[in-house]
From TrEMBL:
Organism, scientific name: Melospiza melodia (Song sparrow)
Protein's UniProt keywords contain Transmembrane: yes
Protein name, UniProt field: VMP1 protein
Membrane-spanning ranges: 77-95, 115-138, 251-267, 273-299, 320-342, 378-399
Keywords: Membrane, Transmembrane, Transmembrane helix
Top-level division of the source organism's lineage: Eukaryota
Length: 421
């Protein structure tokens, strides 16, 4: 399959060169026009053209809603089955009986998993710019569980209030009984669901490239155009970035499932290229998505080696392991001590960190119905404001991206009208 795809690409490239030498002598003018149109679209942002951006955003939203409605209507049989299933689940949810305890348990687990899956999708999709939900949500959650585990000498936090709030259990355990593996097991579900969400977020490039290959159309997508140029100049690539892209493309194309698995199992900023490559060479959906899901949700987010903390292999997930080790009790104490050793400003910087850690310790040992001393800490204040700023930037980026998508529609419509004249 990959060889047939390569042959088709070579024939298409030769045909495009022949056409360029023959009839299509204005290809340079077309490239210049696309460049100008892209620059015009990039200028449609809220801080430069607020009224135009908001207008285009609203129009693009309406068009997307119309397209989704048409797609749902075409699949009305599947939609009817989903509606009937939801109706049955709703009836089961509201009917009293002995099954309610299981319903409540499943409801809590479902929404908890959906929350982390949604954050993972936002991290990898983002309509052109992802929301860094690992830094904002999953990382702090793992850090709070790690700090609480070492403080409580246990991960058996009473539920409820966990996972919304961590309270140390009443039973006392021996000092130093917490292992790295126990903490990893405690946050395994959240990490897996977040990784699964990032895998789902990698599907749009795959579907875009697959649809373009099957239809024979060439979408006006920058990443896809870069991929086409890379295929054409693969043999003459010289710079490191181009060679890295070619290496990823060759790995995915020639190795298949295990190549995709390798690319998804490590931090790889070029993984969008893997999705485009798989779609372009018509790799089966479950081959691509299965390898991506296993790589991101299982291998990348879990430790494949057991034993000591220093056992780090190529399959060890850097995010999860890094956060747990960084927020281990002795590491935190050493970092706070190092902050205090900074000349002149060290003690003043060390004090708020010590106050924050002490406040967290006190909070962990209080029951949910007892009075917990409240205090404002500038570290918490800064983190809250950072979260607000990043979420606002993410929303603004979505508005700008959708407005630019509508501008692209207008440019394509204008180009089609010019061709028909």
């Amino acid at each position: 399959m990959a060889e047939n795809g390569t042959d088709c690409d070579q024939r298409r490239i030769r045909m495009s060169k022949e056409q360029h030498n023959g009839n299509f002598t204005d290809s340079s003018m077309l490239s210049e026009r696309k460049r100008r149109e892209r620059e015009e679209r990039l200028n449609i942002v809220l801080w430069k053209k607020p009224l135009v951006t908001l207008q285009y955003f609203c129009l693009e939203t309406l068009l997307n809603l119309k397209e989704w409605t048409i797609k749902l209507w075409r699949r009305r049989g599947v939609l009817a089955c989903v509606v009937l299933a939801l109706a049955a689940l709703t009836a089961l949810y509201y009917i009293e009986g002995a099954h309610q305890q299981y319903v409540q348990y499943m409801e809590k687990k479902f929404f908890w998993c959906a929350y982390w899956v949604g954050l993972g999708i936002l991290s990898s999709v983002g309509l052109g710019t992802g929301l860094h939900t690992f830094l904002l949500y999953l990382g702090p959650h793992i850090a709070s569980v790690t700090l609480a585990a070492y403080e409580c000498n246990s991960v058996n936090f009473p539920e409820p209030p966990y996972p919304d709030q961590i309270i140390c259990p009443e039973e006392e355990t021996a000092e130093g009984s917490i292992s790295l593996w126990a903490i990893i097991s405690k946050v395994r579900l959240e990490a897996c669901m977040w990784g699964a969400g990032t895998a789902i977020g990698e599907l749009p490039p795959y579907f875009m490239a697959r649809a373009a290959r099957l239809s024979g159309a060439e979408p006006d997508d920058e990443e896809y155009q870069e991929f086409e140029e890379m295929l054409e100049h693969a043999e003459t690539a010289q710079d490191f970035a181009s060679r890295a892209r070619v290496a990823v493309q060759n790995l995915v194309q020639k190795v298949g499932f295990f190549g995709i698995l390798a690319c998804a199992s490590i931090p790889n900023p070029l993984f969008d290229l893997a999705g485009i490559t798989c779609g372009h060479f018509l790799v089966p959906f479950w081959t691509f998505f299965g390898a991506t899901l296993i790589g991101k949700a299982v291998i990348k987010m879990h430790i494949q080696a057991s034993g000591s903390r220093l056992c780090v292999t190529a399959l060890v997930p850097p995010q999860k392991l890094f956060v747990i080790i960084t927020f281990s009790k002795h590491i935190v104490e050493q970092m706070v001590a190092l902050i205090g050793a900074i000349p002149s400003i060290g003690p003043s910087l060390q004090k708020p960190f010590q106050e924050y850690l002490e406040a967290q310790r006190i909070k962990l040992h209080h029951k949910s119905d007892s009075a917990v001393p409240q205090g404002e800490n500038w570290l918490s204040w800064i983190f809250e404001k950072l979260v607000i700023v990043m979420v606002c930037y993410f929303i603004l980026s979505i508005i700008n991206s959708m407005a630019q998508s509508y501008a692209k529609r207008l440019q394509q419509k204008m180009y089609s009208e010019e061709k028909t004249k």
